[in-house]
Amino acid sequence: MTSASAVRSRQTIRFRGVSFVAFVLAPTPPVDDWLDELDRWRTSSPDFFVHRPTILDLSRLPLPTAEITQLSNRLAERGIRIIGLDGVEAHQLDPSLPPLLKGGRPIAPPAANYVSLAQPSGGAAPAAPPPRNEPTSLLIETPIRSGQSVSFPYGDITVLGSVSSGAELVAAGSIHVYGALRGRAMAGAMGNGKARIYCTRYEAELIAIDGYYRTAEDMAPELRGKAVQCWLDDRALQITALS
Amino acid sequence: MNVFNLFRRRATASVARERLQILLAHERSAGGQPELLAVLREEILAVIAKHVSVDADGVVMRMDRGAKVSTLEIEVELPNEASKLKAAG
Amino acid sequence: MAKVLVVTSGKGGVGKTTTTAALGAALAQTGKRVAVVDFDVGLRNLDLIMGAERRVVFDLISVVQGTAKLSQALIRDKRIETLYLLPASQTRDKDALTETGVGDIIRELRGKFDWVICDSPAGIERGATLAMRFADAAIIVTNPEVSSVRDSDRIIGLLDSKTEVAEKGGRVDKHILITRYDPQRAARGEMLSIDDVLDILSTPLLGVIPESQEVLRASNIGQPVTVSDSMSAPGRAYLDAAMRLTGQDVPMTIPMERRGFFDKLFGRKAA
After folding, report:
1. Which position among A3, A57, A100, C108 has the lowest Cβ density within 10 Å, counted as fewest Cβ atoms?
2. Residue A29: CB partners within 8 Å, gap ≥ 6?
């Protein structure tokens, strides 16, 4: 029996587990070209990687340890913080590098500011995922304003209204915009190459399906302002007018 | 559109200049004492309160800053009832 | 039933303060009791445009901090007796303006006035978010120019999420006021058209105010342009906009090119 006054209770260390979604960057050789492409992405979406934890997957770019460190530094210069490595062998890493994080489960990429547009009550907590067997679609009946971001990892997003420049839509399924699409639309974000993007006025800053993207720079001028559909054909984005 | 507008147009810039000169002269000198008016009001109220019961809501202060002379106007509602007047001494 | 109106834009220098003064004066001239409130923190502008700069005793932060009562801080307009101004503070820091403090003041103003017009500062920081927080309606002042339109869009998004009305599930009545519209440049395709602006912002139009010297002259002499020059193009456009705010159906006049007689004669515009 211990005397209460004499014994100091020990600090209990509590372990907690958390899970969150990280982004994966998977460079392909040659590295310099890949970095140029990354820089082009960053010019049109400068804040994309800020606050997003990023994993560097080197399975398509085998590198010796010294060069892994160099690449990690070059990414840090661009404001991209690598929190873990994948696609390398344990013996290649040294203590100065981020840890090996293998076996991540593919999931929808996190949006910049999760907005409560998806919740009818306007509450702060995200809605529980809908029951498995029902087709799900998120319908938004107001325009999406600059700075707003909508993420729906369970299905399609339909917007009755325009999506302003500076706004972002991320869907596991397809994206349908009955209005002008001037912002960013990323469909098939959970790895669904069959997702499509439809809009009645194509003026997008960026469109992406299953990670394959095209920016406004590469937009065919004859399609601008028209009703179009976008789909993926063997890893190449196709955009055609809807007539 | 009449002839006089032409003359009025030339004058507005000089009106603006004069307003700014007066205003900025006050703002620069008031830099060290932003609370002056609040302090003045409290002290004046305290002096009045020695002789008469006054409601703080019954005091209104108005200011008009001029080029050479500024006017501070303080309006105090004094009660007429004798009971509110404090005994002298 | 009092109405709280915020005049906001996101972008700076587009005409919020001019608009607050012009509309405030126009509404007060019809006999309504109007209070205009300057929500900038650290820079004071509305008092200058209203010509009250020499009479400022107490300001918004004095009232929030209890240094002065609202009735002592309000400055009555010399020309229009139902028009009052609550000036901004020039010397305090941002944190002095609290949400509860401002909420109490707005509530008190609602009890004394028919219209409470909040002049928002530029940006999306504290002064701007507090100016819109308690609003029932908003006027989003926009120049026909890309960055102004983008910033207005951002502000519209905030009006739909960061106001008390929006948080309770309601909607703030939003109106676009296009200012500094230059008909010559619009005709040459050098400036975004009114339709372009409305198409992007998807919000109803309250009015179009032409770029003009009368606005500059009005601020030079310290009078709202609806008082100094009510028959000028901007004066009339603001008067029409004020009527639309009160629910009257006034046909929209799009400013056309005009050159005054003397402009043509002397080939230049006097300031």
Report:
1. A3
2. A60, A61
pTM of the shown model: 0.71
Q: What is the pLDDT of residues B12-31, one digit of tens each?
A: 878 888 888 877 777 777 66
- Mean pLDDT value across chain C: 91
Q: What local confidence, expressed as pLDDT, does residue A175 receive?
A: 97
Segments of chain A scoring below 50 in pLDDT: 1-6, 111-128, 130-131
Q: pLDDT value at position A180? A: 96
For B51-75, letters b (16+ CB in 10 Å) and e give eeebeeeebbbebebeeeeeeeeee
B89 falls within a domain: no
Structurally, chain C folds into a number of domains equal to 1
pLDDT at B34 over 60: no
Enumerate neighbours of B (3 or more CB pairs within 8 A).
C
CB contact under 8 A, C69 and B57: yes
Q: Residue A145 sits in a domain of what CATH number? A: 2.160.20.70
Q: Which of C154, C167, C200 sits opposite A147 (nearest CB)?
A: C154
Q: Structural domain of residue B51, as residue ranges? A: 3-83
Query: Total domain count for chain B?
Result: 1
Mutate to test the interface with A, among C168, C202, C203 (most CBs of A within 10 A): C202
- Contact residues, chain B, for C262 at CB < 8 Å: 1, 5-6
- Give the full edge-to-edge strand order of the sheet including A197-202: A137-140, A156-160, A175-181, A197-202, A228-233, A236-241
C191 pLDDT higher than 80: yes
Q: Given an 8 Å threshold on Cβ–Cβ distance, is B23 in contact with C48?
A: yes
Q: Which chains, if any, share at least 3 CB pairs under 8 A with chain C? A: A, B
For residue B40, is it within any domain?
Answer: yes
DSSP at A212: E
- Cα gap A64→A97, rounded to integer Å: 12
Domain containing C142 equals 3-266
**Cα separation of B56 and C30, whole Å?**
33
Q: What is the value of ipTM here, to two decimals?
A: 0.71
* Domain, as residue range, for A161: 116-241
* pLDDT tens profile B55-89: 767 777 787 877 777 777 888 777 776 555 554 43
